[in-house]
Write a structure and sequence with these properties.
This protein is about 35% helix and about 20% strand. The chain has about 280 residues and is an alpha/beta fold. The strands form three sheets. It has a six-stranded mixed beta sheet. The protein has a six-stranded parallel beta sheet with strand order 9-8-7-10-11-13, sandwiched between helices. A two-stranded antiparallel ribbon has the order 12-14. Strand 1, helix 1 and strand 2 form a beta-alpha-beta unit. About 50% of the residues are buried.
């Protein structure tokens, strides 16, 4: 038996256990997966205590950046974005990966979005760095980022340089001027993008990383305007499926079973949470 967990804080509403447990059932693996509250200052000790019974971890906020320097090896994608959401244990070594990028790209492609000439990202945190990498894979060479605090964009700026994307930073007050990009990615927590809902234009495609409550006000406004809208659940599903493949060595992950389990859990759940 192997054990895995999703780490973050707060962690009570994480959907990852539902997704991974559903996958293990289909794959016939007697593995466990749970949610563990862990803050950045607790992370190093937790990682050091992982023995051979651990197959890996999922990481959510606020650990995606904090974990990177604590891992033995990271993928080129983790190096570029400065964020890791996946840990794979190989012997005594902990390897870091970012499956959020794949999750975001696959969710967009499922919705028919395979290219984007212009893009705007709302938010400047770890999820925004993932968005820059995903947008680069979709053909964007320049991205406008709307930051709520321009003084806290240093890590994102460095990530953009490593990814190879030209970054145009703008203050929150300028957000409405950039909502007509081909693709708008809201990389914000629940409620933060709500003030923009009445201002949504008809042209843009929206990817909102929130999966509950759904639809968010900005997603509802985009739907009513006839825009293509992608929610956080497809992104969460695809990134979790890639985690399962990396951590179990089994491919492909049972995507349909994972989706059904997530949808059932969301019918029961009521509180808001960003994609984890």
């Amino acid at each position: 038996m192997q054990q895995l967990a999703v780490l973050g804080s707060p962690i009570g509403q994480a959907l990852s256990p539902v997704l991974h447990r559903a996958a293990y059932r289909v794959l016939g693996l007697d593995w466990t997966y749970r949610a563990i509250d862990c803050t950045p200052d607790q992370l190093e000790q937790f990682l050091a205590g992982m023995d051979e019974g651990w197959a890996g971890l999922s990481l959510t906020m606020p650990l995606k950046r904090a974990a990177v320097p604590l891992l033995d090896e990271v993928s080129p994608l983790v190096h570029a974005t400065g964020t890791a959401n996946t840990v794979i244990r190989r012997g005594r070594r902990l390897l870091g990966e970012n499956t959020d990028v794949d999750g975001m790209v696959q969710a967009l492609r499922d919705a028919g979005v395979s290219r984007a000439k212009s893009a705007c990202v709302l938010g400047a945190g770890a999820t925004a760095a993932t968005a820059l990498a995903a947008l680069h894979l979709l053909g964007c060479t320049a991205v406008t980022v709307i930051a709520r605090d321009l003084g806290r964009t240093g890590e994102l700026t460095r990530a953009a340089d490593r990814i190879g994307v030209t970054l145009h930073l703008r203050p929150w007050a300028d957000a409405v001027r950039h909502l007509e990009a081909d693709l708008v990615v809201s990389a914000l927590p629940p409620g933060a993008a709500d003030p923009l809902a009445p201002l949504w234009p008809a042209a843009a495609t929206l990817l909102d990383v929130v999966y509950r409550p759904w639809p968010t006000p900005i997603a509802r406004a985009a739907q009513e305007a006839g825009s293509t809208v992608v929610g956080g659940l497809p992104m969460l599903l695809h990134q979790a499926a890639r985690q399962v493949e990396l951590q179990t060595g089994r491919t492909p992950a049972p995507l349909d079973a994972m989706r059904r389990a997530a949808e059932q859990a969301l019918v029961v759940g009521t509180s808001g949470s960003p994609a984890r």
